[in-house]
Amino acid sequence: MKARFAVLAFLALAAPAAAQAERPVAKGTGDCAPSMGLNFLCGLNQPEDILQIGTSKWLVASGMSKGGGISLIDTAANTARPLYTGQSRPDRKLYPDCATPPDVSVIDTHGLVLRPRAVTGTYHLYAVTHGPFESIQVFALDARGDVPVLAWTGCVKLPTDFRANSVTATSDGAILVNVQLRGGLTGADFISGRITGGVYEWKPSDKKLRLLPGTEHPGNNGIELSKDEREFYVAVSGTQTVVVYDRADTSKPVRQVRTPWFNLDNIHWSGDRLIAAGMMFDEPACGGTRKQILDAKGDLACHRGWVAAQLDPVAMDWKILAYGEPNPAFGGIATALVIGDTLWMGSYQMDRAAYRPLPGLR
To answer: What are phi and psi of 272, to 5 degrees?
Structure first.
């Protein structure tokens, strides 16, 4: 397994904050003005995950703070609006766990995934939520009109001691939940190398949540399916690896690759690109690695440099798409995607998303 370091043999690298409890909402430096090559779309609420709706101009963004909900971003106009406003079309037979839709003033959202439905332009949207309780909330997204609309469908409740980070789903409705923390463990545990979570599967046939053996890691973070749905990819923050599993047998990984330069957060398909993003591993501006900061009782929410990188999931090669030094106006990068010639990034810390021209394009 190789890593194409391209432009970064000289980079100083670092990591994200340890857990949501260490992720306060942080506004940028006063206004929404561009900073260090980044432009911003402000007024969001910790947009940790962002997804493109098909090939359209629209993005769906999560909101990790209480009432952060789900937002809709227009990348052509550079505007945002609430997408979930309480609409519901419940399917209580498929999702019996929740009788009523979540309150828009309470719901927060973390990891997201979109899956196409049978009708072109319609999707299932799955969202990790911590409030009002631990769950995967499920929505129906209709993007056939001028502006996409969202309606709540139901939810799958998770154990109260789970702290899920990301979610993906198959075309037959199975849900894979990547649980970062469970049983009272904290971000400090996975920073120290302790196994803290695993991947759990829920199937519509029996509506039971099962641990997939072999998927337990220090800091399970992002998750994504292969295009043919035979494999899934787990981004592990504690070990800075992407681990690939065969869905038919998860007892051991079929492939894996480490990145020595950034702590992986989310991983998503963006068109034909499989993109992972995260914060620098060893950031001098913040006092070194997360473990060094933790041991020194420093600030794990310190703004770090960042990397967005593309992974070839077969050859397990990395290609750097963009990177940046610590920016006082933008920290906590968690997600990156490409729309045309523009790189968009979400953050688990900030009141904004960032975008910039993709380097190397003219």
So the answer is: -95, 5
